[in-house]
Design goal:
Layout lengths: L1 E6 L2 E7 H10 L8 E3 L4 H29 L11 H18 L3 E4 L1
Helix pairs in contact: 2-3
């Protein structure tokens, strides 16, 4: 299953189900049905995604440091980081903020 995020301000962003679901859960949206992010909600959505990226990177750095201190093997990093996965969506949100238009999605 795919998630397709649309805005009049930019091209569509398409994500596979696990990534789209994670993104919507970060935003506090129901990933099981189509939805909308209103223009007044966009700045908070960008902030929530950036905070989630920082939190994920802090956890990864902490795990790496713990492994180094204990002499264990370092944990495998994610093949594609959360930062990389949400970057196109954050760009879509920022374009939508500039154009004062909503973002909708469907599954």
């Amino acid at each position: 299953m795919l998630y397709r995020f649309k805005s009049k301000a930019a091209g569509d962003v398409v994500m596979l189900e696990p990534n789209g679901k994670q993104l919507l859960e970060i935003l506090g949206k129901d990933p099981s049905r189509p939805g909308i992010i209103l223009p007044e909600q966009l700045p908070a959505a960008v902030a929530a995604l950036k905070a989630a990226v920082q939190a994920a990177e802090a956890v990864a750095a902490s795990k790496k440091q713990e492994a180094q201190e204990s002499g264990d093997d370092e944990p495998e990093p994610d093949r594609v980081s959360l930062r990389t996965r949400v970057a196109p969506f954050i760009e879509l949100l920022q374009h939508s903020i500039r154009e004062n238009t909503e973002v909708v999605w469907g599954i």
